[in-house]
Amino acid sequence: MKTRRSDRLIDMTSYLLDHPRELISLPFFVKRYDSAKSSISEDLAIIKRTFAVRGLGVIQTLPGAAGGVQYLPGVNSEIAGDFLKLMTLKLAEKERLLPGGYLYLSDLLGNPLYLKMIGRLIAAQYVDQQVDAVMTVATKGIPIAQSVATCLGVPFVIVRRDAKITEGATVSVNYVSASSSRIEKMELSKRSLAEGAHVVIVDDFMKGGGTIHGMHDLLKEFSASLVGITVFAEASFAGQRVESDYTSLLNVVAVDTQNSEIKVELGNYLDKLSD
């Protein structure tokens, strides 16, 4: 039974959004909607144009027998800038300040709308690179990693500081926390990551970068390659960061505990996006 164009456009858009970076052959859509190949091509042209105008990413068509269509999640610089400016205002709210100078982030990282956009922003950097998994450390980095992994269509793996019996055999490394100079331990299940995988590391917050560096070392134990590092927010650090090549969405410049003031600026994300 043939499908009307309006119905095809809605269903095709939904399917592409649910299968990011997956190469889908045109015959699949021809059979799915019982429509001519020319009609499917016209539909894809409409979706491609709309996505480009709305800053939703790229619809890429590949010619040939092995070709098809592929959705690459993304966001334009204007939308990204507006969202990040909103996040700077949210993160600078004085009510976020906790004892010890820590910042409360759970409401931001627990908001599905914010989290979805954070995932899109981070994933947009890596859509045209080979990525096999997204890695983070428990616990607050987990929702970010899940959102990024969803946008890239890959699994996410969780590095833990304490062994879980349900994880089976694990690989562990010791690392130095750059902010506290303490030796810590982290581990990852041997079944979580394939040898030689290409991995993106994400986290919610970074000071000295010791935790990120520990995950980087852990990748070497799996003969895995680091594709890139992105954090939701970085904080000012007086010493030398152990990881220097990273992307941050936000930058917490200063925290004044006495006056309950938090100064937040944009990170280097937009600069790297325009490169």
TrEMBL record:
Q: Where are the transmembrane segments?
A: none
Q: Which UniProt keywords apply?
A: DNA-binding, Transcription, Transcription regulation
- A Pfam family annotated for this chain is Pribosyltran
Q: What CDD domains does the annotation carry?
A: PRTases_typeI (cd06223)
Domain Bacterial purine repressor N-terminal residues, every copy: 4-73
* Statement: the UniProt record of this protein carries the keyword Protein transport: no
The record's section on InterPro entries has: PRTase-like, PRTase_dom, Pur/Pyrimidine_PRTase, PuR_N, PurR_Bsub, WH-like_DNA-bd_sf, WH_DNA-bd_sf
- Key word Transcription present: yes
Domain (Phosphoribosyltransferase): give its ranges: 109-260
Question: How does it associate, per the subunit comment?
Answer: Homodimer.
UniProt lists the family membership as follows: Belongs to the purine/pyrimidine phosphoribosyltransferase family. PurR subfamily.
- UniProt name for this protein: Pur operon repressor
**Organism annotation:** Lapidilactobacillus gannanensis
